[in-house]
Amino acid sequence: MAHMVTPSVATAWTVADNLAAVSRRIATEAHRIDRSVDDITLVAVGKSQPVERVEAALQAGHRVFGENRVQEAAGKWPDLRRRHDGVELHLIGPLQTNKIRDAVRLFDVIQTVDRPRLADGLRREMDRSGRECTCFIQVNTGEEPQKAGVLPQEADAFITRCRADVGLTLVGLMCIPPADEEPALHFALLRGIAERNGLSGLSMGMSGDFETAVAFGATHVRVGSAIFGERAGTGPG
Ligand SMILES: *Cc1c(COP(=O)(O)O)cnc(C)c1O
After folding, report:
1. What is the DSSP secondary structure assignment for residue 150, as one 8-state letter?
2. Cα 62 to averaged position of ligand 1 atoms, centre (Å)
3. Ligand 1 centroid, distance to 157 Cα (angstroms)
């Protein structure tokens, strides 16, 4: 497919159009490298967006969403779920241990497991509530001090611990590359860690780099502004 989709911000965009355009770009990239588009899940990131935009995505038939704050998700998703069946909600932001109970109640997938206390707490709460969340481990591939995630050199041991000792339902790894570095290097690093640990899930790629992420094997891309437009408030959280 030689067809290129040019995002048009100036014309009156709709969430449905943007969703379709992002999906086409994912499909085009998957096709180019001979991957099945069915192996790539588009996680629509609705954080800091007016709820009407999220509602528009639901009305367009989209069902997989990401939120980075437990509090914000608690404010909008119980109601949205009552009105729309089949929603799959991913937590993509840092999780404090005092919010574990709310997180397990609200989310289907926790992408940001990154320390033993959190892993243990999640296991305990899932046993208590009888609700099993699927988990990803976040890896701080850029080794940025201010960023969450287990360090690359500690990843193997932590993965083993989460799987064998804690007993989490672990499906993959997640990363957020440093803003000023070539994301491909980080995607390749994450993929290598996943491969040597026998994990098939790779959550990587955002609005600016999801096609690159698909080329490097992403199974989940987390796309916000390319679907919903610019967020209110301060930059990417
Ligand atoms: C906000 C956010 C995204 C989406 O960012 P966009 O650049 O708007 O696509 C993806 N992943 C995480 C962890 C985020 O916090």
Report:
1. B
2. 17
3. 27
